[in-house]
Design a protein that fits this description.
This protein has 153 residues and is mainly alpha-helical. It is built from 8 helices and no strands.
Length: 153
């Protein structure tokens, strides 16, 4: 009886077919056409420099406006990114800020302050791929100062 030997070439071809095949499953993109009047930064009249910090460090995951990079379109990375965005938006979606009750807004503001102070946000896996999203101590101080001026009602 002859044994069939699996060659490296056959393994490579099999993996290539699988890789190409999974490219056909695409998660939905997290792209809203325009900034909503329900948005956190608009509702709370954020100054431009604060808006830029939030958009650069928070909004890709915690809003309806994700700026995708080329590698976010390649499966299975696209699945990981989509799952991460869905999870992040379930915690806090800045695009729906206006519709959140005032108690929850207070909790979110407190959590933002705690998470950026403790360097838990943005998460390390995000800042690894987007090093410019990492907040400096000065930027954290600016955000904390601005958050302190927000009157939640």
């Amino acid at each position: 009886m002859k044994k069939k030997v699996i060659s490296t070439r056959n393994i490579f071809l099999f993996l290539a077919v699988i890789f190409i095949g999974i490219q056909f499953y695409r998660p939905n993109k997290n792209i809203q056409d325009d900034a909503s009047y329900n948005d956190f930064l608009k509702t709370e009249n954020a100054p431009e420099h604060i808006s830029n910090l939030f958009k650069n460090s928070c909004y890709n995951c915690h809003s309806n406006t994700t700026d995708y990079y080329w590698y976010d379109n390649i499966s299975p990375a696209s699945w990981y990114v989509d799952n991460h965005i869905v999870e992040a938006k379930s915690e806090l979606n800045f695009s729906k800020w206006k519709h959140i009750d005032y108690r929850t807004k207070r909790v979110h503001l407190s959590n933002i302050a705690t998470n950026i102070t403790d360097n838990k946000m943005p998460i390390p896996s995000y800042t690894f791929m987007h090093p410019d999203a990492k907040l400096s101590k000065e930027q954290i101080a600016q955000i904390l100062e601005w958050i302190g001026t927000i009157e939640v009602n």
